[in-house]
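Escalation from tier 1.

The customer reports that the assembly of two entities below gives different structure tokens on two consecutive runs. Tier 1 could not reproduce it. I'm attaching the input and our single run for tier 2 to review.
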Amino acid sequence: MNAPAGFVHETVTYSGDESFLDGVRGFVREGLERDEVVVVVEPRPRLELLRDALGSDAPAVRLLDMTEVGANPGRIIGVWAAALDRAVREGRVLRGVGEPAHRARTPAELAECELHEVLLDEAFGGGPAWRLLCPYDAEGLPPAVCARAQRTHPYRSGPEGPEPTGGGLLTAADLMAAVLPPPADVVLRGEFREADLPAVRRTVATWARSCDLPPERVEALALAASELATNSVRHGGGGGTLAMWSEPGAAVVEFSDTGRLTDPLVGRRLPDPTQVGGRGVYLVHQLCDLVAVRSTPDGTTVRITTWR
Amino acid sequence: MRASGPMTEPALTGSADHVCWVHDDADSFTAAAAGFLAAGLTRGERLLYVGEDDGIARLRREPGPLGPLDDLVAAGRLTLLARTDAYTRDDRFVPEDQLAFYRAATRQAVEDGCTGLRVVAELTALAADPRTRDELARWEHLADDFMAGGSGMSALCAYRRDALDADALTAVATAHPRLHVPDEVLPDDVAPFSVFVDDGRVVVTGCVDAFGADRLHRVLTASPLDAAELATLDLSGLQFADAAGCRAIASWAQDRLRRGQEVALSGASPLFARVWRLLGYDVLVPVVPQRGSA
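Tier 1 run:
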């Protein structure tokens, strides 16, 4: 895959604080010198480190906490899309730093970060020109994650600026076809069709309560379940399968059907007000801690994880 | 606040109640009609029964707590009217004509010293007929507005389940704040949500998901209160709304705003308020969550 014109998505690997600052500070300063809109989305310790290092330049940079706005990696494209819209409206160029795959992520989250990285190019390739630098923490992340970052970014930082990472780029279709890890615990499973939608909501809510989730999370999960069950009814062959199980520190709900998701970006950006559909999956991404979507010609699976 | 929600006992109803009585057999309906009318009789209301001839004959045979119907008719307390006489003019069904009829009948009842007008209407035939079904649903909302406004009219509208397809039944049931269904049926299966008028507000109760969202939009747009300069939508009884349900409300609100009419949302749950904001609809109409009772 060639780098999309306009959007330059590059990675930089760092080891320790100084190395992080070396990789990021110059990129940020260059953006400020060019009067670009600079947005940094990092987990809090790195955010503080960069703020201190930028000194009097820090107030000119929009600093967002990745553990908040990007807690679910499926929400991050929406953050960048909003930042890009705003910059374009102001007639300025956007420059971003984003570290979705940080050391506090679980393996399930890191898998979604990888898909997110690939989808960034699908989302912004062909659009307005802007640069996004993604630091990868060689000390805090499994080596395989850092190695794979070379295959989810068309560019890496080089001494003269971004240079191509070379071939072997992963595609959204590759990652969407990956099989999710099997459940580690007993699974409650049931089939549903249109008439069962209220029962799906009740079943998920009852189960979520039994997992000791607080009432507001139970309600949010029931709503997310309703959206996904609706999609299975509407686009997945008239119905699907609901599965629920516990994992250490998490409650998992999964919907499977025989439909195929044609747009891997669905639900990652707020749909245009005039658009009829697409709000359901968007809501699911906004309401849930972690959402994994996999789709092949054989069917679609959406797995929602709620941290306990 | 008006009574709303599922109900079983027709006698336990008030003077502004609007009940949808879904039934499977004529006998159970006759008993319910008698009980509903008898409760009005006790309160000094005038009674009106509108139905098919066989229904009228059945009520005559089994008047239950009403006692002999001829006595009530002779005393001017009860009128028995064939459905075709009450609900059609030149074979047409016109909701505005209906409203004029019931308005006059209620006024007359009060002028004659009664406390109000209590109506039982067996309207299955109108709901089953594709030519009258849409106007019937519109009429039910108009009638509900009239009852909600303290007119003194209350009504039990009966619909026979096995004579109607599910959509036709849902369309009429949605317009009633109170709903009775046969034992083995879930109220939510007949009408997942209801839209009615209370205290000058449009009230939505129940669950609105993607499969009911279009109907909600139609009902809101056809609401008698839609003409008002300000429409307040009371969401305190809304148990569930998904993205499509929120979109239906937002789309109705947007149409009103375009026409220069205002919209207010009250009683939203914290989750509704959150979803409303997430979907960007708060730029149209702000929503303040009610203090969660859960």
